[in-house]
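User: Here's a protein and a ligand (zinc ion). What would the complex look like?
Assistant: Let me lay out the input and then the predicted complex.
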Amino acid sequence: MRCVSCRREVSGDYVRFKCPSCGNCEVVRCLKCRQTNVHYKCGECSFEGP
Ligand SMILES: [Zn+2]
Ligand SMILES: [Zn+2]
């Protein structure tokens, strides 16, 4: 499992949620990217969000 923002392998604390746009893709973000509000991009529909 990889963080979609920084592309690093996630371990321990991370968040996982469905893409709010297409609902198909699961977005994975590490805690660091979540805390610093790094943008993510959905791999399927290219939706970008904070
Ligand atoms: Zn990250
Ligand atoms: Zn999507």
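Summary: The first strand starts at residue 14 and ends at 18.
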